Amino acid sequence: MKPAIIREKISPADLARITKENYGNMVKIDVDIEREILTIGGEWHSEGDELLSEEDGYKSTNVWGCNFYPWNPPEKRIVFTSLINLKPSIGHRNMEVQDDQIKERMKGIIRSLLLDDNETLDV
What span, in angstroms and rounded, lies between the C-alpha atoms of 16 and 58? Predict the structure, then answer.
């Protein structure tokens, strides 16, 4: 499935469907921490990053990738690793997001648009 930009909260049923259409129990997410939007889906994080790059206001330094496991407990839903997180121009030379503030911003956006910590997927 090709990635889609998410600007407003999607339903648990839609999240489950998108996840199952992609990797089954996991889906690729790219989060724009400035515009507070994300992409969901696709085989690679670079697909979501490219989709976001077509939007006004895109800055690669604001987009971070992660893998999202919606059926996991809240503390184990997000894995902050992606090739798009390699950003040597800003000194970030690791595939895993290292900055706790960026992680918290990503978590907040994911919770508001996909699945809050108090929500579960029963579908």
Answer: 28
Question: What tokens appear for 119 in the block?
Answer: 């929500």
Cα of 63 vs its chain's centroid, Å:
9
pLDDT tens for the chain, residues 1 to 123: 899 999 999 999 999 999 999 999 999 999 999 999 999 999 999 999 999 999 889 999 999 999 999 999 999 999 999 999 999 999 999 999 999 999 999 999 999 999 999 999 876
Compute the distance between CA of residue 69 and CA of residue 4 in angstroms, rounded to an integer: 17
Sorted by sequence, the CB contacts under 8 Å of residue 74 that are 6+ apart come out as 117
CB of 122 closer than 8 Å to CB of 12:
yes
Tokens of 79: 């894995």
Q: How far apart are CA 8 and CA 13, in angstroms?
A: 15
pTM here?
Answer: 0.95
Distance CA 31, CA 39 (A): 7
- What distance in Å separates the CA atoms of residue 54 and residue 49, rounded to the nearest whole number? 9
